[in-house]
Amino acid sequence: MSRPPELWAFILANTFLFFISSILMLLSFYAYYQNPRKTSYRVSTIGFAFIVLGGLVEPVYQLVVRVDYNMSGTELLITQSCEGVLLALGLGLLFYAITHHDSERSTTGEDSTTSLDPNLYEFDESRYKH
């Protein structure tokens, strides 16, 4: 049986969403692994995991559980609602992680600006001389 081009567009779009959100989730997990004290990295990893799950709800139900790409209106509303809730939860966790990233500073009492290299913003002329 021939598959319509709309189905292939659906599969490609969801595959793209899965790969991009999985890569972002892995990068966020790697950042958390490198800095386990930063809870914002853990929260962002969980947020990206919810986005991955949200992106998988409809294609998995439609192509694996139902094994048909024609869904009734009720099934479509339920799967889109589940997908929307998971995506909203993931984006909400990302928003929380971004807005609370700087609030977890070290408690050593040292100013974070003193640990920066004083020559950080100087132009290195030797790199650009031919």
Note the total helix count.
3
| Number of separate strands | 0
| Overall pLDDT score | 81
Poorly predicted tracts of residues: 106-114
**How many domains, as an integer?**
1
Strand percentage lies at under 5%
Rg to the nearest angstrom?
22 Å
Largest sheet: none
The shape, in one word, is elongated
Helix content class: 55-70%
Distance between the termini: 64 Å
- Structural class of the secondary structure composition? mainly alpha
Order of helices and strands: HHH
Produce a short descriptive summary.
The chain is mostly helical. It has three helices and no strands.
Task: Break the fold down into its secondary structure elements and pairings.
Layout: H1 5-34, H2 39-65, H3 73-99
Can you offer a commentary on this structure?
The chain has 130 residues and is an all-alpha fold. It has 3 helices and no strands. The protein has one domain. 65% of the residues lie in helices and 0% in strands. The termini are far apart. About 7% of the residues have low confidence. One of its GO terms (cellular component) is membrane. One of its GO terms (molecular function) is cytochrome-c oxidase activity. Keywords: Membrane, Transmembrane, Transmembrane helix.
Identify the notable features of this structure and list them briefly.
130 residues, 0% strand, mainly alpha, 65% helix, single chain, 3 helices
